[in-house]
Amino acid sequence: MTQQGWFEGVSPDDSDSTIDRIRDGDSDAPDHWPKRAVEAGFSADEETYYEQLRSVTIEATRQAVKTREQADDSQLVHAVRAMDDCDRTANELAERTAEWAGTLFDDVDPRLEAVRSLAEKTPQTPAEEQVLSLASQVDSLATEAESLRSFIEQRAPATAPNLDAMAGPVLAARLIALAGGLEQLAKKPSGTVQVLGAEDALFAHLAGRASSPKHGIIFTHEYVRGTPRENRGSAARALAGKLSIAARIDHYSGELKPEIHEELDERIETIRARTAGGDK
Amino acid sequence: MSDLPRGVERRSFDGKERLATRGMPVYGEPTDGEWRLWDAGRSKLGAMIEHAMPVGLAGGESVLYLGAASGTTVSHVADFSGPTYAVEFAPRPTRDLLSVAEDRPNLFPLLKDARKPQTYAHVVESELDVIVQDVATRGQATVANRNAQFLSADGRLVAAIKARSEDVTAEPQDVFDRVVDELTAEYEIVETRSLAPFHDDHLGVVAVKR
Ligand SMILES: C[S@@+](CC[C@H](N)C(=O)[O-])C[C@H]1O[C@@H](n2cnc3c(N)ncnc32)[C@H](O)[C@@H]1O
Hints:
The complex is a heterodimer of chains A (280) and B (210). Chain A has 280 residues and is mainly alpha-helical.
């Protein structure tokens, strides 16, 4: 049976330790802590005790919130990786299924959606049974990927509100996953953010085998892909710059900052205006 | 009609007499000088006071608030109470709760799970006057029972029980009966009452520790 106040055995000046005690300590039962803190010499009087308690609970809770939200970012990372695995596997298996189904049925469309709907057919032979069962596996995997996507869509706004608003939930989650976490992403220079996901191309460049990549995964963003080729580099640089600011705000404050989104919109408009009227 | 706690007044907002407390505004609520509107439609405790339930708050009490969320109600409680411990387990609303606490000297925010009182019994003091509970989660009676240890001998539980949090399919009245019955393990029920029209399918419960 332990029954110890958060202040016991720590010095009031050692804020790291008092914060840790609030966060991780425990007791089997409460007690008259204000009185005990005064008796223990931790606080001069009860009024002082409450002042100390207030500043340490606020600080401890601030840190605990941050830790918990970061734990949430690792949920996003796992979810987006799992979603990509499900998508990739569904597509591979769909190809195999379509190839086989093509020998048994007429007009087999090799695309994923078509293979998924094969699962509704009623098999007439043992071979058809095997193929249709494969098709239903494809369908389940694709359903799983969809459910992971909606999980990501639901979680991203709370975990990384600015990245979510700027990149959309899935790209936001991919960037966080590629960096290894929100904190890691927040600490990367924007030049690195620009080429995240293009590691192979970057490696080839560093080995002297290719020119430097202008964009990684952020190429999937409309602001890069939808900008005429000659200005894509500038668009990618602008987007990566704002994304790394978004990641920092998400990591350090967690509040949605509309200004940075407006600034990016204007910047992209300016970049695109350079080519407007020119070849597209 | 029971008296309002010291520090809570009825004041006129838009021609209607509404509850108000004195403190820093928190969520954009209307104010009248130093007074800020305490909207019973947004606060189950506010609704219980509007219904004149015997909540045991005269002003200056020590309080444990379970399910503080972003601090809407607990901000009013801290305006008229003594030491106020606010427990909430979701990180996002707790961020807002922190700014409420920064403006109030007697509000202590804790990111903890109310089902596990041992994780904050080293911080929250014993012999408290009142527990206010609004956790809207399954097992509301269990939460109240486990936290009874913080109350003084005649300390009160003031709880808002949400039927749908326990069981979405059951009749609210059946859910309430079950919850109230479970509460009698640790408490003696003083009064229960529906919180309509302010909150649908919520039961207000006032109980004293056994
Ligand atoms: C209806 S809201 C509370 C609103 C708040 N009392 C007010 O009036 O301002 C319920 C809150 O209880 C929290 N909650 C649910 N289960 C909890 C638990 N086991 N421990 C702590 N908080 C919990 C939820 O995260 C949610 O924020």
